[in-house]
Structures are given as C-alpha cells and as structure tokens.
Design brief:
Layout lengths: L5 H5 L9 H10 L1 E5 L4 E3 L7 E7 L2 E7 L2 E8 L3 E3 L1 H6 L6 E4 L3 E7 H8 L3 H27 L2 H15 L5 E3 L4 H7 L4 H10 L5 E4 L2 E4 L2 H8 L13
Antiparallel strand pairs: 1-8, 2-7, 3-6, 3-8, 4-5, 4-7, 9-11, 10-11
Helix pairs in contact: 6-8, 6-9
C-alpha cells in the first residue's frame, strides 16, 4: 500500500482503534488495488489467502451449483469480505465479483491472524464483524422462512431505508436481477412484486424507489421488531 493511501484506510472501523505499529505492519504487507467491473476476485473452494476490504465500488458474493448461481450478498463500502474464511483458515464458501469499478484492500490472511493475537482492538472489531455477519444470516433465514416473496421485497426496502436514516427515496445499486436473486426470486417475480407493492405505498421510478407510505409498507411487510441496522457497517 502506498504511503499516501494509509490515512484513508486507517480510518476504517477494522483498523481505527488498533495499535499504530501493528496497523503499519499490516499496511506494509497489504495492497490497495483497483478492479474493473465484472472481474472475479475469487472462486468457491479457493483458499482464503487474503481478507478483502471494499473501499469503493460494489461487489457481489454468490455461489453456484449444477450450473445455477444465486446471489448471497451485495457488498457496499466500506466492508470486509469474507472474514470467517480468513479467521478459520478455510476455503471460501462463496465466490466474489465486482459489479462496478472497485477499489479493494487485500490483507494477507496469515498476517491478519497473527496480528489479531496481539492487538485487543483488532480482535474486538473482528469479533464484532463476525457477530454482525451471524445476525445478518439469521435475518436472511427468517426472511426466507416467514415471508412470501412480495413481503421479502417490502422488508428489504424497509431495511435499506433504515440504513439511510429513514429515507423515503432509495436508489438500487446494481441490476434488479441481482436483487431478485438475493431475495430468492426470479426477475419476473420481482417485477410482479414491485407492482403488488404499489398498493402498499411503493412507487417505482426506474432504479429509484419511493416509499410513499411507510406505515402501509410496514403493515404489509412486518419488519423485524429488533432493529440493529445502525450498527451495521455495510
């Protein structure tokens, strides 16, 4: 990593509170690289040699089986991926590709594991990220098991609104087919779901989504009673 890039990266939650000497040790061995859109960063089963931190851009995490693939997560800055594979020194369970031009910090996994053992702040932030990832997984499973597809879309929009402080106008980053896959839907079902949400206070304006009646949407989608979206780094 170039010297001029370090102040920007040092502000990231993963590194902000750690010992400066240990942080510099990590930065000296890390690379901040720019990638074009639609570039595969790693594949399922590949050994986790690096922790990836998305600084700018958009990344899709996905998995494949029998020539089918599904979107598991859409990563926005600033966020690391996939921390669990790095900490456990295991192969990736998901693949990753850029959706737009992106800057990604590559941190050697072996070095990160070594420094974690001697830096309490880094250890605590690592535990926090892993815990938030677990909570996100619980929410995703709850969504799939308890909500129909249109309800899942409504709940997704409400969660995005929460992340933006209750904003009523949202802009989806990425193609709608990605969000269909993320929510376990086909693109056709997604279009029908958006149409169905019209009577629950949702207006679609191309890539822009307007939540015209949040009360009606909440009554329909039944969002989770526990809200910890403000703690999420993504």
């Amino acid at each position: 990593m170039r010297e001029g890039e370090r102040p920007e990266i040092a502000k990231l939650p993963l590194f902000a509170e750690m010992d400066e000497d240990k942080r510099n040790r990590i930065f000296t061995a890390s690379f901040l690289q720019a990638f074009p859109p639609q570039l595969t960063l790693f594949e399922v089963g590949q050994h986790a040699d690096f922790l990836h931190v998305l600084v700018d851009g958009l990344v899709e995490l996905y998995t494949t089986n029998a020539e089918r693939d599904t979107t598991m997560a859409i990563i926005e800055p600033v966020h690391s991926f996939i921390l669990a594979a790095v900490i456990t020194d295991q192969p990736y369970l998901m693949a990753a590709r850029t959706l737009s031009a992106s800057r990604v910090l590559l941190i050697p996994a072996e070095l990160l594991r070594a420094v974690i053992q001697h830096d309490v702040a880094l250890m605590q932030e690592t535990m926090r990220e892993l815990a938030m990832g677990y909570r996100g997984l619980v929410r995703a499973l709850t969504d799939l098991k308890l909500r129909q597809s249109t309800e899942r879309l409504g709940n997704f929009l409400l969660l995005e609104s929460r992340k933006l402080g209750g904003a009523r106008r949202l802009r989806l980053r990425g193609e709608k087919r990605l969000f269909a896959s993320l929510l376990g839907m086909t693109p056709e079902n997604l279009s029908r779901a958006f149409s169905a949400l019209g009577k629950h206070g949702v207006i679609v304006e191309g890539a822009n989504i307007v939540i015209d009646n949040p009360v009606a949407l909440e009554a329909f989608a039944r969002p989770d009673p526990v809200d910890d979206s403000s703690l999420d780094q993504s």
